[in-house]
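Incident review: delayed structure delivery

Summary: a single-chain prediction request sat in the queue longer than the usual turnaround. Root cause was a stuck worker, restarted by the on-call engineer. No data loss occurred. The affected request and its eventual output are reproduced below so the record is complete for anyone auditing the incident later.

Affected input:
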Amino acid sequence: MSEIIDTFIAPPCQEEVTILWQDEHLLLINKPAGLLSLSGKNPQNLDSVHHRLVNLFPGCTLVHRLDFGTSGLMVVARNKAINAALCRQFSQRTVNKVYTALLCGHLPNDDGVIDAPIAKDPALFPLMSICAVHGKPARSRYRVVDRFFQEGEDGTLQPLTRVVLTPETGRTHQLRIHCQHLGHPILGCDLYGGLRLPGTARTPRMMLHASELHFVHPVSAEPINACHASPF
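Output delivered after worker restart:
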């Protein structure tokens, strides 16, 4: 197997990580688009959600990640015990995540399910691929909120669909590759076709936002239903 070499260097992110709620056990934050969740091996990729928060909350650890280009809700554990308890909820799939996205084109159906296994391929890094033979099961639901047209930088009208996406599994790049598989990539997604349509090449960010996060507080056992509106 060939060695994977990551040459990505993240550009500076001027936006702040917003702390939406906190107690002595955990934090709920909004991650800006264009910021790594965790610092990379390359020293030029030091800036990240974790790097910024650990200076304010020593000992905090990430329970899950969002892609570099994705904005939205994340839960951060303030100690190892809380991290372990939250990780169990994620692994048992009792955490419900909801995303808002803008997809290229107009989806013909108002809702549906994308059931397509996803595999890693070092030869394609950092891309993932749909693979019925080697892929792990992956399932996502979508619901159309709105269909509209937006003027591109070249004056053309781009057909776009606003959707709510609900991943039932948690594979790397799942929503991005599933939307491409559907034939309607996420607008601004550089890896899976979201910059290829006329007028989309200069889209300022990937139009994917983690807008809801539902889980159980590991200490109080109270349900946490976090919502944060999409910025687009």
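Verification: The chain has a mean pLDDT of 94.
Action items: add queue-age alerting; document worker restart procedure.
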